[in-house]
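Page 47, continued from p. 46.
Same chain as before, 368 aa.
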Amino acid sequence: MKIPTYARYDYCAKRACDFLEEYNISSYPVDVEKIITDNKWGLTPYSLIMQQFHCDRNTVIRCLRSMDGYTQLDDDNYSIAYNDDPELGDRKRFTLMHEIGHIYLNHLVDFDITLLYRNELSKKENKVLENEANAFARNVLAPISLVRQLKDKAPENISSKFGITYYAANTRLDLFKKDFEIIDSIGLQQRMGNIFRKFYNKTTCSKCNAKFFLRYRNFCPICGSKNTLKWGDGIMDYKEYETTVEGFVETCIRCGNKKIMGNYCQICGAPARNYCTNYFWSEDNYQACTHSEPLPGNARFCPDCGAKSLFFHHNVLNAWNIEYDQFMEEETLEVNIPTTSDGFMTIPNEQPKKLPWGDNIDEELPFN
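Result:
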């Protein structure tokens, strides 16, 4: 098969969509090295090649014919080498995804002359394959469906959110319209939306670690804390009592009555629907909360104004930390603490992992 005359940008967009689905990409910046490790592909920095062959970086670049990265196929095994020169800055993520692009687009398999033999490629052929790998990389690392949701589309914000260089962020903006038209023309908009639907709504509270698939803005409905809601995966699924479409619990939370008739249990008087008390009790007050919809069955507080929920006000729900402390105690009991031969506990020499949303996440992002 011959290398096409022009880059197949529609094919690259489709394969990027396939990749996002196959690897279940739902958090950004993408952990590219994990993808390489999970596939058991080789990964070698140029500095290690320099050390092994006692040469300088320019020699490696000249031999591999690539300033940034190089992919090789031996039998069924792929190996990726990349330039780890500190002066290149935060370029590694795009370089590695570019090389994955060569693999995922079958550049080293489909064509008679491949990147494995770069000295046999003409400049035009090489440019076609490089453009395809670049298109694949930008559509995986900074998908159109997410970039368009950013309120602040400045290159520095895109660079920060998706973990790419300022230059790559500028390129993403320059080619935004072109990629959008391609994705729209081949019918990928709905598919891309399905991939990121849960990603848009994924939220956690940094205080009580609750996880949500609803977008709350102001107050955490579990612990009532303000400005603690961030994008990411929480660890706590606080018990939520099932409700009907109208918001009624089918079984009384307090006494277990299964024949509730009205807004309150006729046996123990517990409320059957969860509301914001600020709205429920202060209808004549112009400062009352406007949250008129029933709250989830596990909400202790209103996510709009922070007032207690009706369930929590009537002690139908316990304080959040009771459930949290019980969960943490059970987790602690399951942890096997490593010890030395004389019985002393060993402390792993690990740095705490950074939260996936970073320190300066834009709270206006719809996928926080």
